[in-house]
Automatic annotation (TrEMBL):
Organism per entry: Daucus carota subsp. sativus (Carrot)
GO CC annotation, single: cytoplasm
Protein name: Adenylate kinase isoenzyme 6 homolog
Record GO biological process: ribosomal small subunit biogenesis; rRNA processing
Species classification: Eukaryota, Viridiplantae, Streptophyta, Embryophyta, Tracheophyta
Chain's role: Broad-specificity nucleoside monophosphate (NMP) kinase that catalyzes the reversible transfer of the terminal phosphate group between nucleoside triphosphates and monophosphates. Has also ATPase activity. Involved in the late cytoplasmic maturation steps of the 40S ribosomal particles, specifically 18S rRNA maturation. While NMP activity is not required for ribosome maturation, ATPase activity is. Associates transiently with small ribosomal subunit protein uS11. ATP hydrolysis breaks the interaction with uS11.
InterPro entries: Adenyl_kinase_AK6, P-loop_NTPase
UniProt family annotation: Belongs to the adenylate kinase family. AK6 subfamily.
Cell location: Cytoplasm; Nucleus
Short name of one Pfam family: AAA_18
């Protein structure tokens, strides 16, 4: 099914996921600029289009309505050429993605990034634990074919630039017949 969906597209779709603070949005923006792909930040989309079921005071975020998000994205994903940026991945249809990138960050770097964002208490510790236990990598491996899931270390600007170059090369060589 995923191969048939990919065959209908002329350009691949990429999901960039990982624990908050691993650099998903910065990375996705830079990759979008390097490839001329559309960057879709799910957090922004949820806010702009009201694709949520209210506010979660405990976690200080919107309660995403996954069905509304998927309905909103369906036509764009069929076109291809998208970089989807979100900290979760298990609710997106498998057929949408040709590469799933899980960004990972060393815990002290992640702690500093999240602290600068104002994360404290359980929100900070929950995200650090999520990274320690590789929750997002496991979720990606359970939700998508293992051969399309890649984990990339993203602690420094140099690592991010190398990751962008790697993915840009992969996009250049991508063929829907190979997916």
């Amino acid at each position: 099914m995923a191969a048939a969906a990919a065959a209908a597209r002329s350009r691949p779709n990429i999901l960039v996921t990982g624990t908050p603070g691993t650099g998903k949005t910065t990375f996705s923006t830079a990759l979008s600029e390097a490839t001329n792909f559309r960057h879709i930040n799910i957090g922004d989309l949820v806010k702009e289009k009201n694709l949520h079921d209210g506010w979660d005071d405990k976690f200080d975020c919107y309660i995403i309505n996954e069905d509304l998000v998927c309905d909103e994205l369906e036509n764009m994903m069929e076109e291809g050429g998208n970089i989807v940026d979100y900290h979760g991945c298990d609710f997106f249809p498998e057929r949408w993605f040709d590469r799933v990138v899980v960004l990972q960050t060393e815990n002290s770097v992640l702690f500093d990034r999240l602290s600068r964002r104002g994360y404290t208490g359980s929100k900070l510790s929950n995200n650090i634990e999520c990274e320690i236990f590789q929750v997002l990598l496991e979720e990606a491996r359970e939700s998508y074919p293992e051969d399309i899931v890649v984990a990339l270390k993203n602690d420094t600007v140099d690592e991010m630039n190398a990751n962008i170059a790697t993915l840009s090369d992969w996009i250049s060589s991508w063929s829907p017949m190979l997916s």
